[in-house]
Amino acid sequence: MTRRIPIFSTIVVLAAVATMIGLGIWQLGRLKEKEALIARYEAAAGNNARVPFPLEGKGEAELFRRSELQCNAVASIDPVAGTAANGAKGWVQRAQCVVTLEKTVPVDLGFTRDLNKVAWQGGIVTGVIASGPRLVADPPVAGLQPMAKPDPGDLPNNHLAYAGQWFFFALTALVIYVLALRRRGR
């Protein structure tokens, strides 16, 4: 007497496997998109022409470009973990610069090993647009040391690993289902 393959369970497993394979293929597409984005940001980082600082949105089109803004007043300055241009770890002094009556912009003023806040009243700041968006001062202001510049190479691009995981999950589901069917048949 032969056992029949359960139809409903087989459909569910095959649908799950197809979904996992689809997610793996989607991650491979995201890999290509992220590689193109990083290449675009690397080209932007090599361009020294200044662009206006993006006061609205995330500023993705301007990331890694040089910019300048007028800090009319300083709402606050707080230390955040950061890296110096020479690779040393310490603190970056981040100011919330008032640029309009309704808008403040985060500006990384410079690197220090000291947690004490700096006395800086504002002014014109030039630098590189980083995610947020925020301006990373280059050169630093307020007597601080140079910071590590934003690097497009630091953006995570693990989509190939994610694709591999989804394909592995699909294969694992198939193997487990086949083993379950064999065991059921005994």
- Distance from first to last alpha carbon: 11 Å
* Number of distinct helices: 2
Q: Strands of the largest sheet, in order across it?
A: 1-2-6-7-5-4-3
Shape: elongated
As a percent range, the share of strand residues is 25-35%
Number of domains: 2
Largest sheet: 7 strands, mixed
Mean pLDDT: 90
As a whole number of angstroms, the C-alpha radius of gyration is 26 Å
How many E strands? 7
Q: Uncertain runs with pLDDT below 50, 5 residues or more?
A: none
Order of helices and strands: HEEEEEEEH
- Structural class category: alpha/beta
Helix content: 25-40%
Q: Can you offer a commentary on this structure?
A:
The chain folds into 2 domains: 7-39 and 158-185; 50-149. With 186 residues, it is an alpha/beta fold. 35% of the residues lie in helices and 27% in strands. It has 2 helices and 7 strands. It has a 7-stranded mixed sheet, with no helix packed on it. The longest helix has 39 residues, at 7-45. It has helices at 7-45, 159-185; strands at 50-52, 66-71, 73-83, 89-98, 104-112, 123-130, 134-137. The chain is elongated and about 80 Å long. A hairpin with a 5-residue loop joins strand 3 and strand 4.
